[in-house]
Write a structure and sequence with these properties.
By secondary structure, the protein is α+β, with helices and mostly antiparallel strands. Helix content is about 20%, strand content about 45%. It has an 18-stranded mixed beta sheet that branches.
């Protein structure tokens, strides 16, 4: 019998929207090299690997080229699989044991709520060549977290119309790049896009982990703690964000695209 594997569209209620993630449900700890090969074969921005551990699940995430410490959409996809496949009931809160500590997922009125650590950013100068690689000049603010650059621009049209040079971006270092602005729609508070070509992800369609920084950032800018956000990639996706001290609560929906067995 093969390994159960699923593909889930996260941060959307529609098929072929949001951010697709692979999910492998395992019986025990796999080898790192095997997980990397599966993630490369899936060729999605992230594939999640999970197995039961104590009162929860061990969870790890791999891009097609490397392991990452935190991933929102593949965590949301993992929770969706556990509930949809009746491995757990929707009344049960899920504990995930990860490289970023213990994360939880709850099912709330058709939404999945993830409890993640917040990411602080500090004012920073952009590295040489970053703005040119992004194709932008009108920057309101540049900050940096431990893993990403955060750039606010003055007009949401700049965010939507950006056409980065990914080969140039990949040569600037291993950090991802978040570009954000206020929203010009009453439906959302802010919009964003996320790029990380150095880790095999030119553009991530919807990035939960980026909102661990965007939530606190816009909380300071707008003076409130709850937001509705839109990631303006080609696929697009929306999520609810609530800042709660040093935690960020992310709510999204998910759609099961396929179920299968991995013969490996």
């Amino acid at each position: 019998m093969g390994v159960p594997i699923y593909q889930i569209d996260s941060f959307t209620h529609q098929i072929f929207k949001g951010n697709p993630a692979g999910v492998c449900v395992l019986q025990g700890p796999p080898e790192d090299g095997w997980m990397q090969k599966v993630a490369s074969e899936m060729n999605l921005s992230e594939t999640a690997f999970l197995y039961r551990e104590k009162e929860g699940f061990n969870l790890r995430w791999f891009t097609p080229t490397t392991e990452v410490d935190l991933c929102g959409h593949a965590t949301l996809a993992s929770a969706h699989v556990l509930w949809t496949e009746k491995i757990l009931t929707p009344e049960e809160t899920i504990k995930f044991f990860t490289k970023s500590g213990t994360l939880t997922a709850k099912y709330l009125d058709g939404w999945i709520e993830l409890n993640f650590p917040s990411k602080s950013e500090n004012s920073s100068k952009p590295p040489e060549g970053l703005l040119q690689a992004l194709g932008i000049t009108d920057v309101v603010y540049v900050g940096k977290t431990s893993s990403d650059y955060l750039l606010e621009v003055s007009d949401p049209a700049i965010v939507r119309n950006m056409k980065p040079q990914f080969s140039q971006l990949s040569r600037l270092g291993s950090e991802g790049v978040i570009v954000t602005s206020h929203s010009d729609s009453d439906e959302y508070d802010f919009i964003s896009r996320y790029f990380d070509p150095a880790e095999g992800i030119d553009e991530d369609p919807v990035t939960g982990s980026a909102h661990c920084c965007l939530g606190p950032y816009w909380s300071k800018r707008l003076g409130k703690n709850e937001f509705t956000a839109y990631q303006a990639s080609k696929r697009g996706g929306s999520l609810k964000v609530r800042v709660d001290g040093d935690r960020v609560l992310l709510q999204g929906q998910a759609y099961m695209v396929l179920r299968g067995e991995l013969d490996a």
